[in-house]
Structures are given as structure tokens and as C-alpha cells.
Specification:
By secondary structure, the chain is of the alpha+beta class. 37% of the residues lie in helices and 17% in strands. The chain has three helices and two strands, in the order H-E-H-E-H. The two termini are 20 Å apart.
């Protein structure tokens, strides 16, 4: 995970953190230090579908991840 973070931290625009503990919400706020260009948002585990919708909101149709692959 750290290798990915270092290599791609400047390419991540949005990051949805889904969890069920107060610590997950807190870590979302800390995460903005590692991903300064990204908008990070915490979602409760019951809001998983909303988290996915928020993450891909506004992306082009080239792929669900926005990188042009066929995911």
C-alpha cells in the first residue's frame, strides 16, 4: 500500500473512506496530509453505495476508475 501511495499520491482526486468506527473518520482527516490534492470524505459502512457514487461523480465514461482502463 505504501508503494502505491508514494507513486500515485498526486493522481488521486477523491478518496472515500468507509468504516464503522470513530477512528476511521479521524484517519480520513489525517489522510489529507498524505494526499494533499485529494478530497477525502468519510462514509459510515451503511453508506457504502453513496461512497462509490461520490467517488466516481463527474468522471468520464472511459472507465469507472477514470484512468481509461475497462474496470
Amino acid at each position: 500500500e505504501i508503494k502505491f501511495d508514494i507513486k500515485h499520491c498526486g493522481q488521486i482526486e477523491r478518496c472515500a473512506v468507509v468504516g464503522e468506527k470513530h477512528s476511521h473518520e479521524w484517519m480520513t482527516k489525517v489522510g489529507t496530509m498524505f494526499f494533499p490534492k485529494a478530497t477525502m470524505k468519510y462514509f459510515d459502512v451503511s453508506e457504502q453505495d453513496a461512497a462509490w457514487e461520490w467517488t466516481v461523480e463527474g468522471l468520464s465514461a472511459e472507465g469507472s476508475c477514470g484512468c481509461g482502463c475497462s474496470e
